[in-house]
Amino acid sequence: MSVNPPSNAISTKRKPMDHPNSDRPEKTHKANTAPPVPLDSRPPSDPQESPRWHPYHSDGNVILRADDGTLFGADSWRLAKASTVFKDMFDIPQPISPGWPIASRWVNKNQPIDMEVTSFVLETFLNLINVSIPSLSNGLSFAQMTALSGLCDKFIVTKNIVAQVSRGLLLAGANDPWDLLVWASKKDFLSMGRKALSYMGPEGFTKVYPSPPVLNGRSSDDTTLKYKPFWDRFHLLSPSWQIALISTAFPQPTFRPAENSDTASKTKKISKNSPKGKTQGVPSYDTGPAKSGTFEMVMASWDEMVKGFNPQS
What we know:
By secondary structure, the protein is α+β, with helices and mostly antiparallel strands. Among the domains are: 49-165, Potassium Channel Kv1.1, Chain A; 174-212 and 220-259 and 294-313, no CATH class. The chain is built from 10 helices and 9 strands. The chain has helices at 76-82, 84-91, 119-129, 142-155, 159-173, 177-187, 190-206, 230-234, 239-249, 302-308; strands at residues 62-65, 71-74, 113-114, 214-215, 218-219, 252-257, 265-270, 281-286, 293-298. The strands form 4 sheets. Strands 2-1-3 form a 3-stranded mixed β-sheet. The chain has a two-stranded antiparallel sheet with strand order 4-5. A two-stranded antiparallel ribbon has the order 6-9. The radius of gyration is 36 Å and the shape is elongated. It starts with 61 loop residues before the first strand and ends in a 5-residue tail after the last helix. Residues 1-58, 256-290 are annotated as: Disordered.
């Protein structure tokens, strides 16, 4: 005689889908229960592209992002040792975020810091802070050096790194002295401005170089000021530097009449109504018709000009 189990009895028979060796595919997670996806595997805003990591700077507890979207890994302690801004940033406890059970004292890994510089400049910056004795390689353009200098100013980096960047600016400025002079004027760096003047010399001061060749619809190098007309680049200087430069370089402007023109004669005009007992004549110049001639601005000795140049006086 068989006995059927009660209707409320719990069956211990394992369902096929629960068996570890079952061939039936498991059900997928619903969208609202999916686990968080790591940053490096999330789809970017542009589905045609995937996040790009720097081939070397790819590890660290902080993620930095260049303006082309390239991601850089960095160590928070290295950034904090090199930069006052990063140190203050990491000293502020961050709120608890999903996946991290406690408050973190560094930037959330899922929130990259946009550095607003090119990948090359950001790579150079990280190379500088990752060694005990920072140094820069030669051959960087002046535009790259000014971008690196701006990044250092923005994050208030240590003096030893600033010294290397200043050295790199001087080296790059040797090829583009007008760029160096304009940049120094905006920072009011007198010693760097004098260095730029010594680089260019009297010929480079006024010379305009031929435009660079155009390759594939673009100029190979159209950023430097040596291709611009003199007054276009001169007006880029700060006002105090413009005045000091003109007054130092051209201390004695003169007008030379043409050889075939009559020179202006000095005459004395007598006033009939002059009161008695006072000077009867009022000296004046009777220039007559406009005179032809040449207005000359004779440049001072260049070495003396460089030494005497001082817009801060």
